[in-house]
Design goal:
The complex is a heterodimer of chains A (about 150) and B (about 400). With about 150 residues, chain A is mainly beta. Helices cover about 10% and strands about 35% of the residues of chain A. Chain A folds into 2 domains: about 20-65, no CATH class; about 70-145, OB fold (Dihydrolipoamide Acetyltransferase, E2P). Chain A has helices at about 5-10, 25-30; strands at about 35-40, 45-50, 65, 70-80, 95-100, 105-110, 125-130, 135-145. In chain A, the strands form 2 sheets. Chain A has a 5-stranded antiparallel beta sheet with strand order 6-5-4-7-8. In chain A, a hairpin with a 4-residue loop joins β5 and β6. By secondary structure, chain B is α/β, with parallel strands linked by helices. Chain B is about 40% helix and about 20% strand. In chain B, strands 3-2-4-7-1-8-11-10-9 form a 9-stranded mixed beta sheet, with helices on both faces. In chain B, strands 5-6 form a two-stranded antiparallel ribbon. Classes of the chains: A mainly beta (about 150), B alpha/beta (about 400). The complex binds zinc ion. The site of zinc ion has 8 residues of chain A, from loops.
């Protein structure tokens, strides 16, 4: 048995899927269609991420969805080379970042289509959806072409 | 906030090591009995037992939560027991509950303890626990985030804003290990202290975190006996008196954490706890900081207004927080020096605070130690609980 096979036997090597709440279904439906959706509170105007059952600002139930521009800037990032879960081994090195969306909210994401050494805080990035399976497309970000 | 009126009068501890040969209950026996004997009380005096929740050990958690410890150790006058879980802030909450038990008359003496044995947990279970604790399972985990990465994200931003260099960051490890090397209960006891350059030579786990800037999972346990400040004073033994406390909640999900709000929270909780204790910052003899990662220490040094903004790392590199430096800091070496026992480090730091105030910290003893700042923080940093402890009651 190869090392990889024995590891695959010991560890769960499947990619984890988002644990969805009823009120976040629409976000993932949007992601499937290539849209980055943010909740919008019709009572107080708050742009909300991550999605909530009620507006966290004013507790209103009147929440709709707005498509975000998909543009953001990198607030901070960290590139992983080791000590990640076995299920992410094949992705190494990969870069996790917090990005600030033009609309305000901050998200965790991955920065792709860019060498780790070229990733900078403050870099302009845009959303690109990464398919996990037929249901889930994760919003990753890549540098905006100059 | 009105706190205080309790004191730690006895402590017990086993060295933090990798010791799969010791069962969890084996460690519970030794630490709890040592703490009771050390307090000068007897087992008949223990009126309640509170456990800091052992993370990633569901069977033990259930046994403790459902009341096994007082029965096992024969605390015949115990009136109640429970497990308290706020991650690394757990022990602070155990002490708060002990205070409530004492003030409301449930118990006159309360035993607070913790045990963790990581070395006998199956590796896949350990990975599964630490991979998913403290991150959001919908908005963070699927991207491949880890505790180390969360710390890397914070450290990279801090270094960007402050100009703190990798060498300065690495010097925090040197400082913490300088204390740990002199602490018989720390996993790095007696071990060579790595220079900042040596720390940077270790492999990069994720930017900017090197292997020597992360933690070693280990096994350990400790216990404390808590009574009212009045009773402690009457007993006339060396004790650690709780004098002040303040707390802030930040966020559970790391991406939702406002870094500025967090820094203000670290600053304000310290100021409020110090004010409640009726002392000034200059009176504090030890900053027993608990953050579970070295990379966050320069941020804390600046938030506490010990180092000016942008100078936190330099203070560590200059050796000011190291053993023998002028700012005694995390005197068991915190999680990076002590060894990571889950929530257990939050218990171990209180035991150290008590030891220092009792004048029993051996080679690490800070002379004329009268006041100690002690913080804890839970999860990936969801809150900060700042406390001030003194060797005399208010
Ligand atoms: Zn609202």
């Amino acid at each position: 048995m190869s090392t990889q096979e024995s590891q695959a036997n010991q560890f769960d090597m499947t990619r984890p899927l988002p644990v969805v709440q009823p009120w976040s279904e629409a976000f993932w439906e949007g992601a499937r269609e290539g849209k980055l959706l943010l909740q919008h509170c019709k009572s107080c105007g708050a742009m909300i991420f991550y999605p909530r059952k009620f507006c966290p600002e004013c507790w209103s139930a009147e929440i709709g969805w707005k498509e975000a521009s998909g543009r953001a800037t990198i607030y901070t990032f960290s590139t992983a080379y080791d000590m990640v879960e076995p299920r992410f081994w094949t992705d190494i090195p990969y870069t996790i970042a917090y990005v600030d969306l033009k609309e305000g909210p901050r998200m965790m994401t991955r920065i792709v289509e860019c060498a780790p050494a070229d990733i900078k805080i403050g870099m302009e990035v845009e959303v690109v959806f990464h398919k996990l399976d037929d249901k889930f497309f994760l919003p990753y970000f890549r540098p905006v072409a100059k | 906030m009105k706190s205080g009126k309790i004191a730690i009068i006895g402590v017990g501890e086993v060295p933090t090591r990798t010791m799969p040969e010791r069962s969890r209950w084996d460690i519970i026996y030794d630490t709890c009995m040592e703490a009771v004997r050390d307090s000068g009380l007897t087992k008949s005096d223990i009126g309640a037992v509170i456990s800091t929740s052992p993370q990633a050990q569901p069977q033990l958690t259930a046994e403790l939560a459902f009341g096994k410890l007082p029965e096992e150790l024969g605390f015949e006058n115990c009136r109640d027991t429970c497990v308290v879980n706020a991650g690394g802030a757990g022990t602070s909450n155990c002490l708060r509950l002990a205070e409530q038990y004492i003030n409301s008359g449930v118990a006159e003496a309360v035993l607070v303890h913790h045990v963790t044995v990581h070395s006998t947990i199956a590796v896949p279970d350990l990975i599964a626990f630490f991979a998913t604790a403290g991150v959001d399972l919908q908005w963070e985990y699927p991207f491949g985030s880890t505790y180390n990465i969360i710390m890397g994200l914070m450290a990279n931003r801090y270094m960007h804003e402050s100009g703190c260099t990798p060498l300065e960051m690495a010097s925090v490890v040197t400082a913490l290990r300088s204390w740990a090397s002199r602490d018989p209960n720390s996993i790095f006891y007696g071990k060579a202290v790595p220079s900042p350059e040596k720390v940077l030579e270790s492999a990069m786990l994720n930017t900017p975190l090197h292997k020597r800037e992360s933690n070693i999972l280990a096994d350990g346990g400790c216990a404390m006996v808590v009574v009212s400040a009045e009773r402690a004073r009457k007993m006339g033994k060396p004790a650690a008196y709780k004098l002040g406390e303040s707390v802030r909640y930040f966020s559970a999900t790391p991406m939702m954490r406002n870094f500025e709000k967090m820094v203000y929270g670290l600053r304000d909780t310290a100021k409020e706890a110090i004010a409640e204790a009726g002392i000034t910052k200059e009176d504090v003899n030890i900053w027993n900081v608990y953050l579970a990662y070295p990379l966050a220490h320069p941020i804390m040094a600046e938030a506490l207004e010990i180092a000016p903004f942008g100078q936190g790392g330099k203070y560590f590199l200059d050796g000011r927080m190291s053993f023998g430096g002028d700012i005694p800091w995390s005197t068991i070496g915190e999680a990076p020096g002590r060894g990571h026992t889950g929530s257990g480090v939050s218990s171990a730091v209180y035991v150290e605070t008590a030891r220092q105030l009792m004048g029993r910290a051996g080679e690490r003893q800070v002379p004329n130690c009268s006041y100690v700042y002690q913080n804890t923080s839970g999860g990936s940093g969801f809150n900060n609980i700042a406390t001030i402890w003194g060797r005399e009651p208010k």
